[in-house]
Amino acid sequence: MVRDSLGVGIAVGAYGVAFGAASVAAGFTPAQTSVSSLLTFTGGTQFAIAGVIAGGGTAAAALSGGYLLGARNTLYALRMRPMLGVRGWRVLLAALFTIDESTAMALGQRRASLSRVAFWWTAASVYLFWNLATVLGAVGAQALGNPERFGLDAAIPAAFLALLAPRLRRAAADSPGAGAVGVSRRVALAGALIALALIPLTPPGIPVLAACAGLAFAADVGTVRRLGRPGRRR
Amino acid sequence: MTGTSGWTIVLLSAAGCYALKLAGYAMPQRWFDHPRLRRLIELMPVALLAALIVVEAVAGGRHYDWDAARLAGVAVGAVAVWRRAPFIVVVVVAAATAALLRQL
């Protein structure tokens, strides 16, 4: 279990290097980039904010997108709450540590005691490697200079794709043959098309936010009732 | 970066994201009971990530920027994702493809 947790942490490290480099390319200093990883500690959000800023988006657009992306952590916290049974100052630490990886590892265990071990070990290991990797990526990118020469501009959308793919696949595993995967793919397609159409029409950052509107359409058409049933979620 | 300073963005994102996490522990659970709300929050990353992929791949500010090397890199990265390659492989092959094409 501890070895699995360390493995997850090391895997996340690769993503941390990419984030560090992207953040510096977006105009943040290595210090700002590191503080973001220490305090925000939710990779997708940090990456998205760097992406929107790099594309010329406003702070408001970047933060709105980041918060929307970070809202899933609230659901993770709701799942972990009864499992961890934390009180007092530990709640503050548990909250910081509530991310994709720690929640997934905890939910993957059969016994509650193992879930707690998985949560804390995974979180601590991801925290360590994520922050080390961020520094490495940020300082490295600053030393190397022009990020396009190293293909960073291609690596960033590819990285987002790697984050999206399991969300489309997991839906399939959750309910084989049912509509869940269809809904995820429809939402992804709608989001992509809305963003694509809006690029020349709206200020940078807005296409990403507007993609959420597609979500409302795609998710609401007769599927929410079926999919929203309790106990279906992972 | 224009306008708001980098530090402001970093600290606001940290505070907001921490509040979102803490809310799940500290707020009454019934606030989050609505299945549709939960479903929407769960699907939010799917819509946002899909949009981010498109914007990062083909947008240059407020116009389209179809850069052949970048698109080739993303395409090779996509194949790696489809073949279920580890994250680091996806990122490296995408970057390497774009970088090599630019050397030609």
From TrEMBL, chain A:
<keyword id="KW-1003">Cell membrane</keyword>
<keyword id="KW-1133">Transmembrane helix</keyword>
<feature type="transmembrane region" description="Helical">
    <location>
        <begin position="6"/>
        <end position="26"/>
    </location>
</feature>
<protein>
    <submittedName>
        <fullName>AzlC family ABC transporter permease</fullName>
    </submittedName>
</protein>
<keyword id="KW-0813">Transport</keyword>
<keyword id="KW-0472">Membrane</keyword>
<feature type="transmembrane region" description="Helical">
    <location>
        <begin position="119"/>
        <end position="144"/>
    </location>
</feature>
<feature type="transmembrane region" description="Helical">
    <location>
        <begin position="205"/>
        <end position="224"/>
    </location>
</feature>
<dbReference type="InterPro" id="IPR011606">
    <property type="entry name" value="Brnchd-chn_aa_trnsp_permease"/>
</dbReference>
<dbReference type="Pfam" id="PF03591">
    <property type="entry name" value="AzlC"/>
</dbReference>
<comment type="similarity">
    <text>Belongs to the AzlC family.</text>
</comment>
<keyword id="KW-0812">Transmembrane</keyword>
<feature type="transmembrane region" description="Helical">
    <location>
        <begin position="47"/>
        <end position="69"/>
    </location>
</feature>
From TrEMBL, chain B:
<feature type="transmembrane region" description="Helical">
    <location>
        <begin position="40"/>
        <end position="61"/>
    </location>
</feature>
<feature type="transmembrane region" description="Helical">
    <location>
        <begin position="6"/>
        <end position="28"/>
    </location>
</feature>
<dbReference type="InterPro" id="IPR008407">
    <property type="entry name" value="Brnchd-chn_aa_trnsp_AzlD"/>
</dbReference>
<feature type="transmembrane region" description="Helical">
    <location>
        <begin position="81"/>
        <end position="101"/>
    </location>
</feature>
<protein>
    <submittedName>
        <fullName>AzlD domain-containing protein</fullName>
    </submittedName>
</protein>
<keyword id="KW-1133">Transmembrane helix</keyword>
<keyword id="KW-0812">Transmembrane</keyword>
<keyword id="KW-0472">Membrane</keyword>
<dbReference type="Pfam" id="PF05437">
    <property type="entry name" value="AzlD"/>
</dbReference>
